[in-house]
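In response to the reviewer comment on reproducibility (Comment 2.3), we provide here a single inverse folding case reported in full, input and output, so that an independent group could reproduce the run without further information from us. The C-alpha cells appear first.
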C-alpha cells in the first residue's frame, strides 16, 4: 500500500471516529424500586442502554433521542427492574460505549427500609469547590442525591451546564440525582437535561416537572418550585393532596421536602416569610419531618418550628444547605437557629424505620453538625446543642426544649471535632432512644 493511500485511510478513520457518550446521569420518572432512567449526550443520532444483573448485560433498552446543542440528547427508561438490586449498565452505540457502571434500585416500599441519601445545593460558580464537595459525597456512597437548586450560575448558558456535568458525572452516573429549580437554573435547559417525575403523570410539558414527589423505601420526598411565576394555588392544592396521601400510607415513615428559597435563614437573602406563611402550616398539618433549602450559601439548621415559632412539641426542622460550590456567605444566628456555619459542605442523611439522622460534613468529610429525629417518650433531660465550637467558627442557638409526649425528640450536637461515623451516631441514638416509644404513624 503506498504512503499516500495509507495517509488518506488514516485521515478518514480519524474523521469518522465516534466519540464516547458524555454527561451520563441517572434519575427517575417512575417508581424508584422498579425503574431507572439513563440520560446522556453523544454525536450519534441513536443510542441504547445495555444492562443486566450478576455482572453481565443481557437486556437492551433503546433511547428516545433528540437533537440538542449540535449533538443528540438520549434518554432511556429501564422498567421491570427488581427492588433492592444492583445492575451493571453502559450506554451508547457499538462504535462507542460509556464506561461500565453499576446502579442500584430502591428497596421495595416498606416501613422498615434503611438507606442513605445526600442533600446539598448551590453548586454554581466555583468548579474546584464543587468538585471537592462531589468527591466528599461520593465517599459517603448515597443511594441518591437531593439538590435544592442553583446548579449553575446562569441556566441559559449551555457551557455552564456542560461544565457541571463534566464535574458531577462520576457521582450522578452511579447514584440518581434529583433537584429542585433554583433562581439561577430557570429555563428549559434544566428540564430538557434532567429526567424528573411529573406531578401529573399523564400530562406533558416542562411545567409538569417543576414540582413532584416520589417514594424511596419508607420515605416520601417532595420537590417544590419556589421561583416567581410558579404554579401558585395549583401547586399548593397538589401539595396538600400529595401530603395527605403520604400520611395515609402505612409504608411511609418519614416525609422530606426540598425547594430553593428558605423559609428560615440568617444569611444575606434571609427568610422567605411568604413561603413560610403559605407552606409552613401545610407541612405542620401533615407531619413533614425535614425541609432542605438553599439560596443562601451557608449551612443552617433550625430548631423544630411551628407557626413561625420554636415548637414545644413536634414541629418541622428546616436546613439551609447552600454550600456545594457557590461562594459561601457569612451567617449569624437567629431566634430560630439551632446551628449555623459558613462552609462548603453537604448533608448525609441516614434513614431507618424509627430514626432519621443527619450529619453535616465539610469537603474533607469532617462532621460539624449532627441531628437525630425519632418519636420516643420524653427524655429525663432535654438534649441540648453543644454550643459554638471553641474556635468561634460556628453559631449555636439555645438548647432544644423538652417536648411533651408523644412528640418527636431531637438529639443534636454541633461544633468542631465531632468526627462522625458510628461512634457519634451510636451515642446520639442512645440519647434519643432513652425511654423511646415506637414512632406512631401520622
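Designed residues, in position order:
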Amino acid at each position: 500500500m503506498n504512503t499516500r493511500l495509507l495517509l488518506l485511510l488514516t485521515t478518514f478513520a480519524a474523521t469518522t471516529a465516534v466519540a464516547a457518550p458524555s454527561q451520563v446521569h441517572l434519575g427517575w420518572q417512575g417508581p424508584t424500586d422498579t425503574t431507572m432512567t439513563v440520560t446522556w449526550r453523544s454525536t450519534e443520532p441513536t443510542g441504547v442502554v445495555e444492562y443486566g444483573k450478576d455482572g453481565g448485560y443481557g437486556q437492551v433498552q433503546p433511547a428516545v433521542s433528540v437533537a440538542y446543542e449540535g449533538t443528540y440528547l438520549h434518554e432511556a427508561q429501564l422498567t421491570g427492574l427488581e427492588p433492592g438490586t444492583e445492575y451493571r449498565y453502559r450506554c451508547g452505540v457499538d462504535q462507542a460505549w460509556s464506561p461500565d457502571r453499576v446502579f442500584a434500585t430502591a428497596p421495595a416500599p416498606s416501613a422498615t427500609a434503611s438507606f442513605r441519601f445526600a442533600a446539598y445545593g448551590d453548586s454554581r460558580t466555583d468548579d474546584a469547590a464543587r468538585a471537592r464537595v462531589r468527591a466528599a459525597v461520593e465517599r459517603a456512597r448515597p443511594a441518591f442525591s437531593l439538590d435544592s437548586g442553583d446548579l449553575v450560575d446562569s441556566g441559559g448558558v449551555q457551557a455552564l451546564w456542560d461544565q457541571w456535568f463534566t464535574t458531577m458525572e462520576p457521582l450522578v452516573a452511579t447514584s440518581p440525582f434529583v433537584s429542585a429549580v433554583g433562581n439561577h437554573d430557570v429555563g428549559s435547559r434544566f428540564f430538557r437535561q434532567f429526567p424528573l417525575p411529573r406531578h401529573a403523570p399523564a400530562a406533558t410539558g416542562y411545567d409538569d416537572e417543576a414540582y413532584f414527589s416520589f417514594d424511596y423505601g419508607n420515605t416520601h420526598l417532595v420537590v417544590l418550585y419556589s421561583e416567581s411565576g410558579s404554579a401558585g394555588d395549583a401547586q399548593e392544592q397538589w401539595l396538600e393532596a400529595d401530603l395527605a396521601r403520604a400520611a395515609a400510607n402505612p409504608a411511609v415513615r418519614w416525609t422530606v421536602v426540598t425547594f430553593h428559597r428558605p423559609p428560615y435563614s440568617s444569611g444575606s437573602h434571609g427568610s422567605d416569610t411568604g413561603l413560610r406563611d403559605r407552606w409552613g402550616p401545610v407541612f405542620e398539618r401533615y407531619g413533614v419531618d425535614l425541609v432542605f433549602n438553599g439560596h443562601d450559601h451557608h449551612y443552617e439548621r433550625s430548631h423544630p418550628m411551628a407557626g413561625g415559632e420554636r415548637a414545644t412539641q413536634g414541629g418541622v426542622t428546616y436546613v439551609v444547605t447552600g454550600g456545594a460550590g457557590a461562594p459561601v456567605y457569612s451567617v449569624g444566628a437567629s431566634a430560630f437557629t439551632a446551628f449555623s456555619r459558613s462552609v462548603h459542605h453537604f448533608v448525609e442523611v441516614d434513614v431507618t424505620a424509627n430514626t432519621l439522622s443527619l450529619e453535616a460534613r465539610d469537603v474533607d468529610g469532617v462532621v460539624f453538625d449532627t441531628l437525630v429525629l425519632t418519636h420516643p417518650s420524653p427524655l429525663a433531660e432535654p438534649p441540648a446543642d453543644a454550643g459554638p465550637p471553641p474556635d468561634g467558627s460556628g453559631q449555636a442557638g439555645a438548647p432544644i426544649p423538652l417536648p411533651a409526649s408523644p412528640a418527636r425528640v431531637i438529639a443534636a450536637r454541633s461544633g468542631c471535632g465531632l468526627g462522625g461515623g458510628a461512634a457519634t451516631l451510636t451515642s446520639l441514638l442512645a440519647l434519643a432512644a432513652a425511654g423511646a416509644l415506637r414512632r406512631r404513624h401520622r
